[in-house]
Amino acid sequence: MGELIQIVDSLENKISKLLHRLEVLDRANKTLENELKNVRSNQENARKTVSEWEEKYNSLKLANSMLGSNTNKTEAKLKINTLIRELDYCIAQLSE
To answer: Which residues form a coiled coil (predicted)?
Structure first.
């Protein structure tokens, strides 16, 4: 009978340790999930910032080429042609 009590006490002790370890791991998991959310948010903000700077850079390149810079004249002409085609398409859609 004493041996059975020792086995039960041993099992209770192991279960208690496992439950404690589970709580610790749950807390660590929640912390890591919060960190992951923060990192993803920061990454998305960085992507948006990069995208905004790329748009500004392209606008500046276009403005420079329109001001007489020879380096991007072909690109500017292509952009203007694209804009004209888009306008023509919109006008055609409106006239229908």
So the answer is: 8-63
Q: Which two tokens stand for residue 27?
A: 């807390």
Report pLDDT digits (tens) over 15-35.
999 999 999 999 999 999 999
Full DSSP string of 35-75: HHHHHHHHHHHHHHHHHHHHHHHHHHHHHHHHTT-STTHHH
Q: pTM of the full predicted structure?
A: 0.54
Distance CA 24, CA 18 (A): 10
pLDDT in tens, 80-96: 888 899 999 999 998 87
Distances in Å between the alpha carbon of 90 and those of 78, 81, 84?
18, 14, 10
Place of tokens 């905004």: 52
Q: At which residue do the structure tokens 């276009």 appear?
A: 62
